[in-house]
Each structure stands twice: as C-alpha cells, then as structure tokens.
Amino acid sequence: MARHRQQEEVSGLTPQRRAVLESIRESEAHPTASEVYAAARERLPSISFATVYNSLRYLKEAGLVREISFGDSASRYDRETDRHDHAICTSCGKLVDFDLPQTAELLRIAARKARFKAESVHLTLRGLCPDCRQEP
Amino acid sequence: MARHRQQEEVSGLTPQRRAVLESIRESEAHPTASEVYAAARERLPSISFATVYNSLRYLKEAGLVREISFGDSASRYDRETDRHDHAICTSCGKLVDFDLPQTAELLRIAARKARFKAESVHLTLRGLCPDCRQEP
DNA sequence: AGATTAAATTAGAATTATTCTAATTCCACT
DNA sequence: AGTGGAATTAGAATAATTCTAATTTAATCT
After folding, report:
1. How far is A135 from chain B (nearest CA, A)?
2. What backbone phi and psi angles, to 5 degrees, belong to A88?
3. pLDDT higher than threshold 90 for residue B51
C-alpha cells in the first residue's frame, strides 16, 4: 500500500550533511540556503556556509532534497522528495505545495513539443493565496 | 488575425532602459543580468550594473521582458512576452522555449488545487535535448 | 596492525549576483 | 528661468554562491 512516506532515517551521512538534512526536514517552510545555515548551526556550530552549499548539492543529487527557484534571487530547498508542484503568492510571497495528478500525461506532451527526452516536469502557479485574496 | 507579434518599437524609455531592452531582444539565448550588462555597455558604455538591474525590474513590470530562474544561481531574461514554457537540458544546460496549448485549462485546475486566485502558470521540463540524447 | 596514498569532504577566501541609498536628472508648475 | 518633488541613475554595500587549498576519511599495501 502506497502510504505517504514518513521521514526515514538516512544512514551513512557525515555529521554536516545530517545536520543540513535534518534542518530542512524540521522546517515547516521552504528555507533558503541562508536559513538552512542558521538552523544547521544550532546542531553543529562549527559548520561553514560552504559546507552547507556542498551538502545541499550532495543531498539534491541523492534525491533527499529538492531545489526550487523563483525570481527572488535565492534558491529555496524542500524536504519533500515525492514529485509535486508549487504555488507562489504574488502578494505576500507565500509558497504552497500541491500535486496535480495529470502531470504524468503532461510530461509526455511537453516532451513531445520540446523534442526532449523527458526526465521531470514542474509546474508553478502564480496568484493570490487564500489570505491575500480577501484584501484588495 | 493573431499573427505572432514582431518586435514593436517602444517609445518613452530612457536611453538606459532602451539599451537593456534592445540587448535582450537582440540576444538569441536567454541572457543573465551579467550578459545583458555586457551587451548594454556596447550601446551605452556609461551604464552601470545597478541600472541594468533597475531597468530589468522596470521592463519586467511593464511586461516587456520576462524573468526566468532555475537552480543555476543567476536569473535569466527572456524577450518573449507571450506566455510560454521552458525545457532545460540536464546535460548541456540548453534552454528551449515551447508552448503548451492546454495551459489555460491547467491554470484552472492548479488554482483549484492550491486554493489560489490564479494569475499565471508556468511549466518547466527537465530532460535531454535532441543533441544530448544521442551520446550516452 | 601501521604506513602510504588516493579520494572525499570541509571551510576560509574569493567571486559573482543583487540590492540599497545618496546623488543626479527630469518635469510640472510657478 | 526658478523651485519642489518624483523618477532614475550608479557607486557602494550586502548577500548568494563557488573555488581551492587544507583536512579528514577510506582504501591499499606491506
């Protein structure tokens, strides 16, 4: 049964990488590298910024973390590994996860159009979040 | 008849903004701010980096230019104003434009899922471009 | 097991990207 | 033409990311 995967223990990580991974996992939001650094520092005060970046790259390549970027100059990191999409509020900047079931289909169509061998699709919605759509 | 719009003349821009806009329009690719700066400098040698950024923001808000960002640290700018999607090659990094007709539909579905008031959707495909799918 | 070398990882330093703010230019209205 | 205020510019500051030399870890050979 495809139960939604819980945070599994990952073994064989260096202390630095573990600190980075746990910092992302404990975060409710989608932290920037800088926010990850601050959080990782609480676990491992000696960690450097460069190591945070190295770890993020490593974890990303290992599929444990995902990088997302919008037009706001700093990349953000996301603990979810299952495929999903993002909505970003143009008023307050809030970032929300959601998943569209039809993306498998979409992947095929997009790949044909672009003449690419598909690996993944990602969809970004811009608009107003529930809070911001109230006040004009 | 909805012919594809050619580069229309835009009047009322400052020389700096015009230089930035023309630099983007003449570029075949999707230049970074830094590349735009280099090109704008050929037209207007006194222009500063900060002004390029200011101009990019202005042009973006005026809808004459679009900002796109992936996980590669520097935002890129796109002359196309008509809505379209992007495919990025995971091997060589090439960026290709394409348009999916079903995105209007998608916008509605995504907005419902995310509970947002929709403004726009954008889709990014990752995979191998025609050149890179040859060599393994 | 201990020494030796290679590979992986770290983090200080450097580079690159972006934003801030004081100075300048441009207008609208005398 | 002169003044006030908004818009725009660009030098300087800050923030984000990458480079590389140093360190640590792991593998290999006595």
Report:
1. 12
2. -125, 135
3. yes
